[in-house]
Design brief:
By secondary structure, the chain is an all-alpha fold. It contains 18 helices and four strands. The protein has one domain. Helices cover 66% and strands 2% of the residues.
Length: 503
């Protein structure tokens, strides 16, 4: 017997099934069936806070001033309250088991250990005049870094828990891509009309701004991260035909804005990012390449990716010349000083190596580089350098061998887990994981030349991409389930039409 469903009932059933797609599934219950975990109002506000933070931290000068960092820390406290409220509403507090949280927790713990008053101030030598008794030579800076790391850890952990459905995954990806495109347009516009001011109002005397960022290299680092996910979706073939041109245009504008910053580290990182995608997209551990047809298909796919990469780079360079004129690239070539191609970095790195040799195990203290640098500077000792312009050397300087091991553990675990997450039948999920890994790779390359991850906005977006690369299967769309739902909706519609015709 066929049961006829009214139009209202059909629409109600379709809405319920559609809403179910936006609900996360917890591990299977005792009877083997997945248990649906509803999204509370607190969960929705928490996810919205993450999306807004990605945008606002960049607009607030990259969140490098004390007032903006204080607001960012308050947002972290807000996330904790919403998280606890969500757990109270559900009756259980959800926490991710992602091991990438451990290095961040360990780094905060290292900073707390460095605040202990264990230093002997009567040892003579370089520290003879120091009245600091803590292991950190700048305890105030170390406290500030601990607050920053803790806040970033809260955002990272919350992203791992509350980006828990395919729908939310798509929202955060679109937020990053759209905002990156808008930020690129804004940065180029400001560069053409008012190159020495931020927001056309604030004049800078000691740095070159680009967009809302005080340092143009940090804007380049943000662009590396923002364009990574849409670029990964393009290389993975996860974008429908009619949307590809929009993604290509958005990626192209972000690439042009990056090159217009004249950041050599940013341009090298962009090229490395594209090359990473060319190699990694064709790497699938579960593929079967023994059949000749499969081998030929992989070769054709590799040639296509290489051609796409070459076309993308040439197109970005051509667009850069179109928008910025020939001087856009000549400025970049002319920025290389023939006497010192590293523009002072070689000297900074040599001094940093001397600091590492003197404090090899626990370092000089998180954030203490600006204090210790002047004591080892072989020039006049009066030039205060806040950062080492190499994040790897500075991790060794600030955190010693312990900090370096924590950083190495994070990088190895990130790429190991990210490559595992790519082994999925969901093309969109695979493209997001691929692009997120490419963005992280680009920034890690850039970190050899600059300190882009010391900017709060860049560090936050880096961790959000790390979360997108390593999220578990909750964010993967089940294709068969979607087809069944669509067939069900069509059946309901047909029944409703038949009912209406019979009436």
């Amino acid at each position: 017997m066929t049961t006829l469903i009214s139009n209202a009932e059909a629409r109600s059933l379709a809405l319920k099934e559609s809403a179910a797609l936006d609900q996360p599934q917890s591990p299977a219950s005792g009877d083997g069936r997945p248990r649906m975990v509803p999204h509370t109002i607190f969960s929705r506000f928490l996810f919205l806070t993450i999306c807004v933070a990605v945008v606002m931290t960049a607009l607030a000068y990259g969140t490098v001033h004390y007032w903006s960092m204080a607001l960012f820390a308050l947002c972290g406290v807000l996330l904790l309250f919403l998280w606890i409220a969500d757990g109270w509403r559900l009756g259980t507090l959800r926490v991710s088991r992602n091991i990438l949280q451990l290095p961040l927790l360990g780094m905060a713990g290292l900073g707390l250990f460095q605040l202990l008053s264990l230093r002997n101030t009567n040892t003579g030598g370089v520290l003879a005049t120091s009245a600091v008794r803590t292991l950190s030579l700048d305890p105030n800076a170390t406290r500030l870094v601990i607050v920053q790391i803790t806040t970033l850890l809260i955002f990272f952990a919350a992203s791992l828990v509350f980006i828990d459905t395919p729908h939310r995954l798509r929202i955060i990806v679109r937020t990053i891509a759209i905002f990156g495109f808008v930020l690129a347009i804004f940065g180029m516009t400001q560069s053409f009309t008012s190159p020495t001011k931020v927001y056309w109002m604030r004049e800078l005397a000691q740095s070159t701004a680009f967009g809302p960022f005080i340092n143009r290299h940090h804007f380049a680092g943000y662009m590396e991260l923002a364009l990574a996910v849409p670029l990964g979706l393009l290389f993975s073939g996860a974008i429908e035909g009619e949307k590809k041109l929009l993604y290509v245009f958005a990626v192209g504008m972000m690439g042009v804005a990056l090159i217009l910053t004249n950041s050599r580290g940013g341009i090298i990182s962009l090229i490395g990012e594209v090359m990473f995608l060319v190699v990694i997209v064709g790497f699938r551990r579960k593929h079967r390449a023994r059949e000749p047809e499969e081998k030929q298909r992989r070769v054709r796919s590799g040639v296509t990716r290489a051609a796409l990469a070459l076309s993308l780079i040439v197109g970005i360079l051509a667009a850069t010349v179109f928008f910025g004129g020939e001087q856009a690239l000549s400025r970049f070539v002319g920025s290389v000083n023939t006497d010192d191609p590293t523009t002072g970095r070689a000297h900074f790195w040599n001094v940093t190596i001397d600091i590492i040799r003197a404090h090899p195990f626990i370092g000089t203290g998180l954030g203490a580089f600006g204090v210790i640098y002047t004591r080892y500077d072989s020039h006049n000792g009066l030039y205060r350098l806040e950062q080492a312009h190499n994040d790897y050397l500075q991790v060794l300087s600030d955190g010693g061998l312990i900090g370096a091991l924590l950083g190495l553990f994070f990088i190895v675990a990130l790429f190991r887990m990210g490559l595992q997450r790519r082994e999925t039948g969901d093309e969109f999920r695979r493209g997001v994981a691929t692009g997120a890994l490419a963005g992280c790779f680009a920034v890690l390359v850039h970190s050899f030349f600059d300190f882009t991850l010391h900017t709060t906005s860049n560090a936050l977006l880096f961790l959000v991409l790390a979360a997108l690369a390593t999220l578990n299967g909750r964010v993967e769309m089940e294709r068969s389930g979607r087809r069944r739902r669509r067939r069900s909706h069509r059946d309901h519609a047909d029944l409703s039409s038949s009912d209406a015709a019979g009436a």
